[in-house]
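Work package 3, deliverable 3.1, input record:
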Amino acid sequence: MRTGNLPWLRPLAGLAVGAFFFVPLYLGIINTFKEPDQIRTRPLALPQPFTLRNITTLLSRPDNLYWASVTNSILVTGLSIIVLTILSATLGHYLARTSSLWGRLLMLLLLCGLMIPPQVILAPVTYVLRAVGLMSTLPGLVLFNVGYYVPFGVFVFTGFMRSVPVDLEEAAAIDGATRGQIFWRIVFPLLRPATASVLIFLGVWIWNDFIDPLIILGPSQGTTITTGIFRSVGVWRTDYGTIFSLMFMGTIPVLAFYLFLQKHFVKGLTGGATKG
Amino acid sequence: MVSDVAARPRKPPVGSRTRHRPKRRIWPRVWHFLSFGAPGVLIYVCFVLVPIVVSFGYSLTNYNPFNPPTKFVGLRNYQLMLQDDTFLTSLKITTILTAIVVIVPNVVGLGIAVLLDRNGWLYNALRSVFFTPMVLSSVVISVIWTRMLQDDGPINDVLRAIGVQDPPGWLSDPDIALYSLATVLCWQMLGFCVVIYLAGLSGVPKELLEAASIDGAGPIRRFWQVTWPMLAPALTVNTVVLLISAFKIFDHVQVITQGGPGTGSTATIAFLAIQTAFVDNHQGYASAEAIAMLVVIAVLTTISLGVLRRREVNL
């Protein structure tokens, strides 16, 4: 498929479509560095003058809106993805190495969880959390995240586990290694690409989750970045300086995390679909 | 090492296996499950499976935490739902939105993937632009688009500048707001479709295209007869993911329109279920709405998976 006589047509069309698509992103970035009254009156114009005042104001707010939200987000996301990786890797290994009916049934039950909307389970989840005294707490949200996202982790790990030869594990077993040693010393290091995919996908999803922290953390117990942005929109509808700088500063950590593992991300996403 | 493994008798003789195996192996197996499987399964059961069952149980009651006593009402919530205009409207709205979001990013995403299916820094940079919304939170995307679409926002500024006297109220007109919402979701999901189609395109063998070319097929014919059939798995993934994400859209409604303007002109099922449960506190009825939503998603996913997978096999 060559463009024939018009070799400049493809890059030009690409640039035009890309520029059109980029407008909302441009709006989000540019207004972070603008005086608040200019955000209101000239949303698309370049910052005149360029200012960091929105960000410095946000960082030094007496109510600690940014630092409290970002700490909560980092704690919730970090703890959730660490626990999720450990639990879904071990559970995935168990399921990949069990051929019993019970194992297949368990797998089916887990796969059902992949398409359940949070609306169906959130109300009962609040009762479970209240019963164990974890409602409106960070550990409660982490526990819920683990339960809700474990099917995805298991899905990725079992798929990948099938390509790890069983012989390796049997050899280690003959040499006297325990099951724990075999998994953590031999199998887990081989699963690095799967681990990277799980960390990246779940990290981005959990960081960006909105309805779950909104309901589970509730109004009293601090905010994550997303619920913080939502509350700012509600409280200071016209305080664009705060809203845009909070969005910008709230995206930096997850963007850095994403770029750091981007290579694995795209590889994990298209794994099996590409030929090389 | 390998010979050790090979030498180990993996399968004992048939007779002894049937008699001894269950007794000898049951405890190691239980221990294997307890140490490897149980922790994840336990949390999944507590936070997903049990809540689904409880939710279904609630949907058969008139449960309201602030208005006891709770009574068993059988299927009455489901009967009420079928006569409830609010619910039926929201089902209609969600269906329209889902139809738009399944079709538009699929078509446009395919076009962009074909356009960007080249190597070089320009194409890499453009790909990154389209991927970016995948890392952004729906809340961030919603706030930015709210500013874009407001009556005094940049879109209407441009329209006024080119001479449109009375530009539409993208978010304030009840007839338009739903389509504005669909636009935002299409923009957000476009990048995902582009990634998946690009992956599919890179899997089309060059030899096949060359062979078709030698046989005299033009670019359009090559695309429809060689490339497109090979993109069937990518179409399946995109359609199913778009279907599920569109049908349970909540964040955008909550941030951009809060279900308005007017009465429920953008109140999708996911939004309605949360409102009924946590604002109106009619948790029995809300559970019925949520269960109905789950059933619709499950049915739509199963049907589309069945149809699209069959297409892949026909290849």
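The radius of gyration of chain B is 27 Å.
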